[in-house]
Amino acid sequence: MFRNQYDSDTTVWSPQGRLFQVEYAMEAVKQGAATVGLKSSDFAVLIALCRTSKDTNTLQRKIMPVDAHVGMSISGLTADARQVCQYMRTECMAYRHSYDSEFPIRRLVANLGNKLQATTQRYDRRPYGVGMLVAGYDEQGPHIFQVMPTANVLNCKAMAIGARSQSARTYLERNMEDFEGCTMDELICHGIQAIRGSLGHDDSSNLTINVAIVGKNLPFKMFTDAENHIYLTMAKVLGQPLSGEQDALSEGGMSDDEMLDQGPSGSGMPGNGASDADINASSSGH
Amino acid sequence: MSSLGFEQFPDYQVPGVKHADFSPYESNGGSIVAIAGDDFAVIAADTRLSSGYNIHSRSQSKLFKLSPLTVLGSTGCWADTLSLTGLMKVRMQSYEHTHLRTMTTDAVAQMLSITMYNRRFFPYYVSNILAGIDKDGKGVVYSYDPIGHCEKATYRAGGTAGTLLQPVLDNQIGYKNMNLAASEVPKLTKERAVSVASDTFISAAERDIYTGDSVLINIITKDGIEVKELTLRQD
Is position A79 within any domain? Predict the structure, then answer.
């Protein structure tokens, strides 16, 4: 797929009808840490795996508030994400200033999609290297929108993007029917359980789980460390044993029983060896 | 306030010719009083909106809560007031997005001054008084002129009855022109500040036709903003 004579410019089609630069931009999204979004009848929740480093105190924010009724989590190039976020914030503020009401989210992401599309059709610009999950609540209810560098905007019931997000997507797909009637706590726990599969077995101590929520009579807010911790503990208690790290290729071959056996440290016990806010995801071979 | 300059050229004024004059400004009346204490700030404004001898509203608040610790009182041209406060809200939200915290009262004061001066050659016809708690927890009052000159003070009166109210505050809060030794000056309590503010408004309503109906009082402390309402003469 990589390195061919049609991939130097966004404005060059390949003979198969592909725009390689845009597809390469999608690869940038897959490099970022996973993030999950899901919604119930009253709330939309974003869960993000944040890479923190012990040496630096960077505010590598994956979840960005946009307005009181909408926020987003990102995966990919943080710098590009900041630009996009700034654009959305300005749009929302201008709308509020002009019309004294909140920007309908459908239209906001549609405008965003159009803006992203422009970058895929100009020789002097490149696609934004960031994928976003936009969570919001407006008159039409809760929303989760997935926006990608291809300028595709998808209205989702639940979605996960980023590295190793396939296992999260599988979890979401399996439990999708339950989300509608979930309480706020249950919804967050589902989200945390979904993202646990994307932890992977490397540098897990550097990853923390951050939660944000928006909903009916609940302006967008990111949880504090203390609140994150409460939900993590809750999810561990409610959740099944961590079923081992899977990547997109090996997922199909395993049965549920086999996966259950591959708990952390192979013992199959929930939360074994986990400490604090970090979930130690040492799974036996995959 | 029609000062388009037509009057300066007597030659052009033909007797009998009706010349329509458009003034972009209008005074919608109203007064504000603000008093700062050690750990609180009190700001009060009447609720009458008028235009000449007509009353637009008897219950329009002129106090704008910019943050949990900062309240802006604005009188003058109501259109300019709405525009200016709208602009302030947007700027403050931008600040919160970038810096992940609310603007301090002092920062708001400076930003308001800059915002108003940006319109140096077509000013906001607004009399602003900003009251709040600063980053050290002390009450502060900032007063402004129409082009943004900002002055920090302990107490201030503004608006149509500003000149009526200021001397009263000078005497009752500043203890000016009284034979009082420095040690005898009592510390300003919240209750006294509220009572002086209320009394001054009652006096203002007596003599200023643009001030009246009722007074909304905001008492700002680090714990929040308490709102009190006092009914005045309705005439």
Answer: yes
Note whether residue A133 is domain-resident.
yes
User: Rounded to two decimals, what is the model's pTM?
Assistant: 0.80
Residue A248 token pair: 């997109």
Residues of A in contact with B97 (CB under 8 A): 65, 89
Which residues in chain B touch residue A89, judged by CB atoms under 8 angstroms apart?
Answer: 94, 97
Interchain contact, B90 vs A65, CB within 8 Å? no
**Structural tokens at position A43:** 């709330």
Number of domains in chain A: 1
Q: Buried b vs exposed e over B91-115: b needs ≥16 C-beta within 10 Å?
A: bbbebebeeeebbbbbbbbebbbee
- State whether residue B86 sits within 8 Å of chain A by CB: yes
Instruction: With CA atoms as reference, report the closest residue to A28 among A66, A89, A79, A86.
Output: A79
Asked whether residue A148 is assigned to any structural domain, the reply reads yes
The token pair that represents B116 in the structure block: 């108003």
DSSP state of B72: E
Q: Distance between CA atoms of B200 and B205, rounded to whole angstroms?
A: 9
CB B154 within 8 A of CB B169: no
Q: Is residue A223, in this structure, part of any structural domain at all?
A: yes
The single-letter DSSP state of residue A217 is T
ipTM associated with this complex: 0.78
Do A65 and B97 lie within an 8 Å CB cutoff? yes
HSE (side-chain half, CA atoms, 13 Å) at B117: 10
Q: Is B131 helix (H, G, I), strand (E, B) or coil?
A: strand
**CB distance A254 to A246 below 8 Å:** yes
> In chain A, whose CA is at the least distance from the CA of B90?
A93
CA dihedral A176, A235, A39, A179 (to 10 degrees): 40
- The answer to whether the Cβ–Cβ distance between B97 and A89 falls below 8 Å is yes
Under 8 Å between Cβ of B80 and B36: no
Q: What is the CATH number of the domain that holds A145?
A: 3.60.20.10
Domain that holds residue A233: 20-251
Give me the average pLDDT of each 10-residue run along chain A (286 residues). Answer: 81 92 94 94 94 66 93 95 96 95 96 96 93 96 96 96 94 94 93 88 71 95 90 80 43 46 42 39 37
Helix, strand or coil for residue A43?
strand
Residue from A189, A226, A195 nearest A209 by CA = A195
Domains of chain B: 31-48+57-232 (3.60.20.10)
